[in-house]
Recover the amino acids of this structure.
């Protein structure tokens, strides 16, 4: 009889551990959901957009600390249009970034620096630009809609031309600028 009692105690202990683990898992999932919701709200607030658009930004790897880099993605894409980013283009993008509150020694600045050093995929650019288009749609009179093409054009002009005698914007850069004009519903 004592053997049966011992097995029963072991079973009871096993089920208690299982119950504790199950409750801990539920608690972690709720905490994760709450953190994700807070990140979504932070991104939405920083980008002046909806939480649905913020969720798309999160899916691209942006968070509350790096969200300010998102409106700079078109500038980064223009910089990469010719296959490399020049020092002048990097400086132009970083100067604009400071106006968005992206300062050195911050996670946002490090993320920006990474995007300027390692070329993102076309898929990243396409998805990020869709998010920006949604931001523009949510805030049609906003700074991004009215300036994204001019900002991108300034980056394209940063390294081009030959002593002012040739067009500073390359054919590839011009193609990207035209795509932006259509995508964001703006013209220069």
């Amino acid at each position: 009889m004592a053997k049966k009692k011992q097995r029963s105690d072991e079973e009871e202990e096993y089920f208690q551990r299982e119950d504790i683990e199950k409750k801990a898992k539920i608690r972690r999932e709720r905490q994760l959901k709450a953190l994700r919701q807070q990140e979504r709200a932070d991104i939405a607030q920083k980008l002046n957009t909806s939480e649905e658009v913020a969720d798309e930004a999160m899916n691209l790897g942006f968070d509350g600390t790096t969200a300010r880099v998102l409106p700079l993605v078109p500038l980064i894409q223009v910089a990469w249009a010719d296959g490399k980013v020049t020092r002048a283009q990097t400086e132009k993008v970083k100067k604009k970034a400071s106006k968005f509150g992206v300062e050195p020694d911050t996670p946002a600045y490090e993320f920006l620096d990474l995007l300027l050093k390692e070329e993102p995929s076309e898929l990243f650019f396409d998805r990020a630009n869709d998010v920006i288009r949604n931001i523009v749609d949510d805030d049609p009179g906003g700074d991004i809609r009215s300036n994204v093409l001019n900002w991108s054009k300034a980056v394209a002009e940063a390294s081009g031309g030959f002593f002012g005698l040739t067009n500073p914007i390359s054919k590839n850069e011009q193609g990207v600028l035209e795509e932006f004009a259509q995508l964001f519903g703006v013209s220069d």
Remarks:
- The mean pLDDT is 85.
- Residues 68-184 form one domain.
- The chain is about 70% helix and 0% strand.
